[in-house]
Write a structure and sequence with these properties.
The structure is a single chain. The chain is of the alpha+beta class and about 325 residues long. The chain has helices at about 10-20, 25-35, 50-75, 90-95, 120-130, 150-170, 220-225, 230-235, 245-255, 275, 325-330, and strands at about 80-90, 105-110, 115-120, 175-185, 195-205, 210-220, 260-265, 295-300, 300-310, 315-325. The chain has 3 domains: about 10-35, no CATH class; about 45-235, Chemotaxis protein chec; about 260-330, Surface presentation of antigens (SPOA) (Roll). It is built from 11 helices and 10 strands.
Length: about 325
């Protein structure tokens, strides 16, 4: 799609054409006044903004890093996975773009509705299977002849990888991925209507000498409830997750049990170092506060309250009278 913003060279050429008479300014104004029409394909509805696509790319960049770590540990060989592209297209177009026989992992992401599809190129899938069974990681495409044992091993390998998908989405929403189906023929799989818009995240995957693609297909209906959370404003506002009610309650209990030093200050006095060095038992120091003035009660070293001295059960005590205002606190 051509950009609507003119480059500096285009602007210079336009001004030159007007100044030399090659282009009439009135004709240019007339052309600008005409309504510009853009072709829109309703079968290829664009339901996600560029901003939301960038957020999805960011999430799956993290997923790719987590998958790299997971498969490296499981297969004990060189693994590199990165996001190649993130596109929105009709579901039918996605199905036509993948091999006729391939590895299809279908899973739910509760509490979101709908299902997500992870398509793994057979070259990659068999290289992984070969490594799990103790081989060198060579790829032999025999997708139509999967044994029950190979089927089970492969589905278990990808099912465990979904824990990484949960972690990748934690910054947006807490999901619980759960494998629901394992298929090899896309024609037997109809998750949404053919014209439904889906997000396709293509992960470029390298396993030893074998390379291929892992494609994640997320229908619009799955992401629809959380589309507002995919904006830049949400990312900026949600650097930290909001604490849960039970976390807030536990924090409040801990704060209530915290001990703070409380000081009731009777007054102050200034004396010279000479007088201080000559102080003896029984000497009296005159304070600068009158006995009819309230005491200052400090929490730590911050003045917070005023009080008056007294006794409770023959013990010295201080009765809180009032709370110091902000101005008094700042002035101390």
């Amino acid at each position: 799609m051509a950009s609507d913003i003119m480059s500096q060279s285009e602007i210079d050429a336009l001004l030159s054409a007007i100044s030399t008479g090659e282009m009439d300014a009135d004709e240019l104004k007339k052309e600008e006044a005409e309504r510009k029409v853009r072709v829109y394909d309703f079968k290829r509805a664009l339901r996600f903004s560029k901003d939301q696509i960038r957020s999805l790319t960011r999430i799956h960049d993290n997923f790719a890093r987590l998958l790299t770590t997971y498969f490296s540990a499981q297969l004990r060989t060189y693994i590199h996975i990165n996001v190649a592209s993130v596109d929105q297209l009709p579901y039918e177009e996605f199905i036509r773009s993948i091999p006729k026989m391939t590895v299809l992992n279908v899973f739910e992401v509760q509490p979101l509705e709908g299902r997500v599809l992870m398509e793994v190129n057979p070259n990659i899938a068999y290289a992984m299977l070969d490594r799990v069974l103790g081989g060198l990681g060579t790829s032999v495409n025999k997708i139509e002849n999967l044994t029950e044992i190979e089927n089970k091993i492969m589905s278990n390998l990808f099912e465990k990888s979904l824990e990484n998908y949960q972690e990748a989405w934690n910054s947006i929403i807490e999901v619980e991925p759960m494998m629901t189906d394992f298929e090899v023929n896309p024609q037997f799989l109809q998750m949404v209507s053919p014209n439904e818009t889906v997000i396709v995240i293509s992960l470029n995957t390298q396993i030893g000498e074998t390379s291929g693609m892992i494609n994640l297909c997320i229908p619009h209906v799955v992401l629809e409830p959380i589309i507002p959370k995919l904006s830049v404003h949400y990312w900026m506002q949600s650097d930290r997750k909001e604490p849960k009610p039970h976390e807030i309650e536990a924090l409040q209990k801990q704060i209530r049990r915290a001990e703070l030093p409380i000081i009731a200050e009777l007054g102050t006095a200034d004396i010279s170092i000479q007088d201080f060095l000559q102080l003896q038992l029984g000497d009296v120091i005159q304070l600068d506060k009158s006995i009819d003035k309230p005491l200052v009660v400090k929490i730590g070293d911050k003045p917070k309250f005023t009080g008056q001295p007294g006794k409770i059960n023959k013990k010295l005590a201080v009765q809180i009278i009032d709370h110091l205002s902000r101005g008094d606190e700042d002035g101390e």
